[in-house]
Amino acid sequence: MSTLDEGPLVARLRTGTEALLSPTTETDRERRRIAALALPFVALAVFGAVVPLVVMFRISVAEEYLTATAGVQFDAWVTLLASILAFVPGVGSAVDADPVYGEVIWNSLWFGAVTTVASVALGIVIAHALEKYDLPGEGLLVTLISFPISLPGIVAAFMMIVWFGKTGLLTNVFVWLGGEASLFPAVTSNEVKLTGRPSGTTIAVFGLFLGYLYSMVPRATFLLRGAYAEVNTDAEAAARALGATPWQTFRYVTLPQIRPGIVGAVILTFRTALAIFGTVLVLKALSVVTFRFDQILKVGYDLPTASALAGLFFFFTVGFTFLSLRFTSAEVTG
Amino acid sequence: MPERVTLDGVTKRFGDTLAVDDVSVTVEPGETLGLVGPSGCGKTTTLRTVAGFETPSEGAVEFGGQEVTNAPPEARDVGLVFQSYALFDNMTVRENVEFGLKMRSLPKVERAERATDLLELLDIGELADRDPTTLSGGQQQRVGLARALAIEPRVLLLDEPMTGLDAKLKSRLQREIGSLLEDLDVTALYVTHDQAEAMVMCDRIAVMNDGTIEQVGTPDEVYERPANDFVADFVGTSNRLAATARDGRLDFGHATAPAPNGDDGEVTVVVRPEAFELGGGPFSATVRERFYLGEHVRAVAELPDGESLTLRFDPTEAPAAGEEVSLALDTDRVHVLPEP
Fold first, then answer.
1. Contact (CB<8Å) A242/B103
2. Is A239 on the interface with B (CB under 8 A)?
3. Does A238 contact B at CB distance below 8 Å?
4. Which tens digits make up the pLDDT trace of B192-233?
5. Which fold has domain B237-338?
6. What is the mean pLDDT of residues B154-167?
7. Under CATH, which architecture does the B5-233 domain have?
8. H helix or E strand, kind and range, residue A321
9. Which of A240, A253, A256 sits opposite B73 (nearest CB)?
């Protein structure tokens, strides 16, 4: 590039920097305010996301720092992708690989989807009740509902043990009703220690499901309460007067209005479901991605594979959020 | 056939607050009854009680002789028109109008026909496929009205439907909707805080204050013969002058005038600004303020006893501020209230 080409660019940079440091117009001052306000976010993005992601990706292709002798190794990615392919029905049999990663990804996705649907559905019911009716003790109710947000997943798991553990409240009730073998507790035995793969019974997975809901329902509820606050109550009243039952009013008038809130709640809760660790670590009912991380790092300390899995996790989450928001935006502005 | 709507001793309490207090009123078949009053007087609560959104603490609501006090809104066949339009943003104009018919499971063809007829009637046929959020306030209100009328309601309830519209549009819509309601022969309850609007739109007016009805009458009855001080003050501009009625005359202290009826004793005389005419006595007053309002001049004058009078003059003959004027009183247009 010639000096003549660089001239205007350097001049523009200099002018921009000067305007930022000593603003003379309101537009300059506004830019400076934006720059100042964006600074914490930029710092957070660099230190909390960009640098760790780059390092993580680097580790996934070269555990030691890159040297001429070590070079780039794609073994971890190959292992990971082969494992995913091996799990895919139809083509899996043709791939000679352990389908463990395909299995944990599938578990994370289906379990995340099921818990998300349940959490958002419950969130709609609770938000509807809170926003549409004067409930007795509403303040206390809101506090109780918000409580799990500030509790770690381990506590959620503990709650499930209290109910479904070997000496849990419900376990005792079932045992009292049907004898010793009537209920397998939510906490699986030491099978995971032997095989590294928990295969929870239905009731154990149900316990984990409740543990997930414990963390996810409050998040969905509070997001949906915001959406409900924007609902045009006159339109709901008009629908009732026109002959719509409360259910029809919800379906035709309320639901379309809270749809952006629902999509937001789905994004938030699904990402929460993918990220929950403490609950699944304690209950060990299903091997999901976060649980597998723990296994990879505890058992083999396989940093490249953990990094590759984390990278995949990151790109999936970002892609999912991006697509969902784009879809929501299309729905809203459509 | 339009139906009679009756409220019989309707009372509504919210905790310790008495929102509506023993309201009894009848809306005759095909009539438009205006519920007017200041904010918080209970008119919207009364309307919501008729619609079924509030259950009265006491009293009953009847449509055509059938009690509906405890019936849910969807079982009452009422059309609601709101100040906020309350259109369904996720539906087109046509789908909005068809909504009530869809809830009644009417065949699609019949729904479409009725919606087309109503949209044409309200002069918004070309907007049928539009998103209601892209329409002007006046157009949205027409859609709201078409939607409410589509179900052929037993009673049409209008809650401040013109508030928020600009003056010119408001005046045009008032004329159009007024004649439409008359042509359609629908029983309607029209809630507004604007007494002038109620006078244009309604066959009769019920003036509400503090949860009770102060007076029910035709617009001219309420304006010319207010039942009490509140109605005189709320409906239009009025001068309320203390006088002593004796031997067929009203003695104001500084002037006397013939009494319109046989009252005796201390009274309050309600005089509208237009009942005073310039010149001829017996009143004399000093003009203190003068406001040119285009069609007329409004002046505030002071009587010899210090009382203020609001007067209305033709701009060509209006006196200047500071001028002393002689005023005649058209005693056919005064209304005498006995002292409470």
1. yes
2. yes
3. yes
4. 988 888 998 899 999 999 999 999 999 999 998 888 889 988
5. OB fold (Dihydrolipoamide Acetyltransferase, E2P) (2.40.50)
6. 88
7. 3-Layer(aba) Sandwich (3.40)
8. helix A303-333
9. A240
